Structure formats: structure tokens, C-alpha cells
Amino acid sequence: MRESWRWFGPNDPVSLSDIRQAGATDIVSALHSIPTGETWPLETIRAHQRLIEDTPPGLSPLRWSVVESIPVHEDIKLGRPDRQRYIDCWIRSMENLAECGITTICYNFMPVIDWTRTELNLQLPSGAYALRFDQKKFAAFDLFILCRENAQQDYSAVEVAESQALFKAMSDEEKTELTRTIIKGLPGRMTDAYGIDDFRAMLANYQGMTHTLLRDNLVAFLSQVLPRAEALGMKLAIHPDDPPRDMLGLPRIVCTADDLDTLFDRLPSPANGITLCVGTYGSRPDNDLPDMARRFGPRIHFSHLRGVSRDPDEQRSFVEASHLDSDIDMVAVIRELLAEESRRRAATKGDANTEQIAIRPDHGHRMLDDINKQVNPGYSGIGRLKGLAEIRGVIRALTAIHHEVSPEIE
Ligand code: DNO
């Protein structure tokens, strides 16, 4: 397994030196300054790569091996007539990355909003802080702040009453904070940050959009991207919709194992793969993560490892728990990823490039010195360091057991 770490670029409060000290070897990064829909120029990619890969003497090298993400322009998701120009730019960016030897691209196809939370600083019993998604708060935003037309249809009478009570009890600051958290977006989002009016306008663009139409638009995009990706040896890793279900009246189509089956039935290209984001898929109870890791093993081009604990009485609400102690059996997931690597090793007779799956500790708690520092929500240094260290321990232990049980495999 390749231990990777997301780096937002030179302004990231967690530096490349911090990442190197954490023991990660691979960097997950993007050119965040390039507007959505524009081609990533070769020279800009090279300059970013040099920042990452030019290693001071005596220190361990880092390698930019995964792009997260090249944003997909809304016109592609909407299937608008001028999407071709944006698809062409996306393909050109991919070609430029290939030229620099960066061969894995994580991307998503979420309309309007990228990953979404309602609270960025929930204090845990340990005293550290976590991210949370609270379904009632989200409903309060949808129904009483955004006042989305026909939103009531998406909620039961009890839900409407409960979220109204919650809304009434919120201070103006809390309402502003909730709105900011949802519509301005979180670090690494691949959609624009909006004011509330723009946000309403963006949602209005999707009126009449169905799951089938959105899926067709994804297929139309990938039908052009995948042949080129295959020719270049690029691997595409679609990230699931987070949280994995329809929101704000928008269809979301990468949420379950069935969604993935549909995608691969339509586009079986080996370049068509997934980011196994354990925390995202695990935030719904009907996704069995070890089973998904096994079933989609050959399609896993990248993985985000993170735990979630769903509220016992409201399975759509969750807290980002610690990496190993959550509703997800992380050890079982890692065991499946290691088994997949063994199969790849056997199939490729030991080609180091094809066998290894890049994993990254996804999100971390804000704890210790990071409590008083400026951090990107979810992307603190120390919380992720703890997550990576725990995951590394699991990998080492499982690998050692595996060698004891079947030494002939290596
Ligand atoms: C959140 C991330 C997302 C992800 C994009 C992938 O922490 O998992 O921002 O990078 O949705 O395209």
C-alpha cells in the first residue's frame, strides 16, 4: 500500500516537511488556482510537481502520484450543448498530467455541492474536535434558510416540525454559520463557493434533472475520457457523493454498490475505477464496506480511509469518528485491500506500479496543538498523523500475519 497525504499547495498550513515527517511517501494534490473548466497547462503542472518532488539533500523523496481532483464543469453534469469544450479541456489536462507521469485522477460528479457537513467543530468526549453532518440541521437550512421550492415534499411532517423547532432555537450567528458551512463549501471542493442567490440559481439549473439523465451525462463524459485514459495508462477514480444520497432536490448517482455496478456495466473499461472513500460509503448503513472492497477490488485505484459513527436514532446523521473506532470495520476493509494487492501482484508477477493501492488518511480530528492553529476543516496535521499511524499499524500487523500463514505467496 502506498501511504499518501493530501496537500493543498504552498498555502496549506500542513507543509511538505510535515508530511514527510508523518512518513507518507505519496502526495495527493491539485491545481486549485485554475478555474473549473480550464485546461491545466503542462508548465503549471510541472512547477507544482517540482515543488513536491524537488527534495532537499538527505531527506526522503515525495512523489505527486494522485490528482484530487480535476473538477468537472457543471455544463458537463448538466449535459449542456457547450459541454464539449469542457470535456476537451478535461482530456487535455489529463494528457498533460500523463506527460508528467502522474497517472491517477480522483474526480467526482456531484451537482452544485461537493462534500457537505453542517458542523466543523463538534467537541468529542476526548476534547478533540470533529466534523459532523446533522440531518435535522441540514433540513432546517433547506426548509427555512434556503426556503427551497417544494422542499417540504422531501421531508416527513415530523422532520419538518423538528427542524422548524431547531431553526427557531438557532441564533442569527448560528444560522449564518450553518449557511456558510453548506454553501461556501469545504476544502478541496470541486464546485464553486456561492452566495445564497447564486446558490439558488445553480440549483434552479438542475430543475427536471433525473438520476437517469445525470447518469447519461456521466456516461457521455466518460465515453470520451476513458479511451484516451486507457491509451495513456491513466486511472480514473470516481469519488462517491458525500453524503451518499440525494440532497436539496439534486439527484446523486455515486452512492451505493448498485450505482457502481450500473456504472461498470455501462463502461467496463479498466481505466474506469473508484476512489474507495470508506467514510463516505460508510455513512449509509446499507453499504457493507469490506464487501464493497472485495467486490470492486480491481476497480479500486485509490482509497480514502476514515471512520464514521452514525447516530443510532437517525442514520443519516454522523460524526467523523476516529479511523479505527467507528461503525466501519476498518481492519476488515484493509484486509480486503491487501488481498486485492496480493491478487494484483500474482497477476502482474510483481510489477510494483500496478500492484499497490494508494491510500490516504482522510480527515482527522483537530487536536493538541492544532486546536489553536488555523487548519483546513478535516485536514489538520496531527489528527491525520494519528489516523495514518493507526492505519499503518493495521497494515503492518495484517501483512505480518499474512506472511506467517502463507509465506509462499511472496
Ligand atoms: C473531502 C474530499 C472531497 C473530494 C472530492 C473529490 O474531504 O473527499 O473534497 O476531494 O469530492 O473529487
Question: Could you provide a short overview of the structure?
Answer:
This protein has 410 residues and is α/β, with parallel strands linked by helices.
**Helicity level, as a percent range?**
40-55%
Return the CATH class of one domain.
Answer: Alpha Beta
Largest β-sheet summary: 8 strands, parallel, barrel
Uncertain runs with pLDDT below 50, 5 residues or more? none
**Roughly what fraction of the amino acids lie in strands?**
15-25%
Give the tally of β-strands.
Answer: 12
Explain what the structure shows.
This protein has 410 residues and is of the alpha/beta class. The protein has a domain at 2-115 and 210-305 and 332-405: Divalent-metal-dependent TIM barrel enzymes (TIM Barrel), CATH 3.20.20. 43% of the residues lie in helices and 15% in strands. It has helices at residues 16-22, 42-53, 74-78, 83-99, 135-145, 157-169, 172-183, 196-205, 211-232, 257-266, 278-281, 289-295, 330-348, 352-355, 381-405, and strands at residues 2-6, 26-29, 63-68, 104-107, 119-123, 129-133, 235-238, 272-277, 300-305, 307-311, 314-321, 358-361. The strands form two sheets. The protein has an eight-stranded parallel beta barrel. Helix 5 packs across helix 6 and helix 12 (289-295) packs parallel to helix 13. It is globular, with a radius of gyration of 21 Å. The model has no long low-confidence stretch (mean pLDDT 95). Bound molecules: D-mannose. Residues 68-69, 106-108, 114-115, 188-190, 239, 277, 304, 378 line the site of D-mannose.
